[in-house]
Amino acid sequence: MFFQSESKAQTWRAVAQFADRPELLLYLGRSSTQVRSSYLEAFAEILDDDEQAACISVALERWNGTPDSGRWLIQSNLNVPASALLLKVA
Fold it and tell me: In the chain, what are the domain boundaries?
């Protein structure tokens, strides 16, 4: 039996990428517009100061494939918030 929990799969995400540690999911959404408008708040809320300073990029990724078989594809890079860049300089 199949239970569908949502009408449309959430197929976009923002992922913080680091040079010295695994990537970290920042935001999962239904559209690229939703992810682009919400990832900055998630960046500030989820990552501590050290993680923000260590973040080298934020990738916008889209799920390609069926829900049970596929992979994440990088669509573009999002801007790393200015506060994180200031932490790197200080």
Answer: 12-89
